[in-house]
Amino acid sequence: MITGFQHLHSAMRWVVLALIVVTIFKAWSAKRNGSGFSAGQAKLGLFSMISLHVQLLLGLALYFMKGWAGLLGSPGVMSSTVMRFFTVEHLVGMLIAILFGTLGHSLVKRANTDELKNQRQLRYFLLAFVVIIASIPWPIRPGFEAYGWF
């Protein structure tokens, strides 16, 4: 069961990244062209936020099923690159990214002008994207070679 959750969490990362990249591109394009904020952009922001929240639920399930939560107070956790990454860095980074994505969707709904909607969606989803990229255990990072691309 853990393996299935891990594969689903890993595959879902690509869905999240694709949705966020398209959301960023659409917001940037609309901002650059001075066009209005479309219903499609609003739905893209919503789907991006939903995918982030689904990914959070999968990640939290893995966090507790794999025992990472129990290691938080253990000695030596912070000196191990992999253990520190999964117990602290990945969790905190992704929570921050999800916060940015949620703000990117919520603040757009409260904005009065299309220009402000485009600006907020671009800003917050771009911040979420940067934090996600920094917080993923890419196989090119030292110590994470065993973790695949999929």
Give a structural overview.
The protein is mostly helical. The chain has one domain: Four Helix Bundle (Hemerythrin (Met), subunit A), CATH 1.20.120. The protein is 74% helix and 0% strand. It contains four helices and no strands. It has helices at residues 2-33, 39-65, 81-110, 114-135. The chain is elongated. It starts with a helix and ends in a 15-residue tail after the last helix.
- How is the main sheet built? none
- Overall, the morphology is elongated
Q: How are helices and strands ordered from N to C?
A: HHHH
- Portion in strands: under 5%
Rg, nearest Å: 17 Å
> CATH class, please?
Mainly Alpha
How many helical elements?
4
Query: In which range does the helix fraction lie?
Result: over 70%
Number of strands: 0
Structural class: mainly alpha
Number of domains: 1
Give structural attributes.
about 150 residues, mainly alpha, Four Helix Bundle (Hemerythrin (Met), subunit A), 4 helices
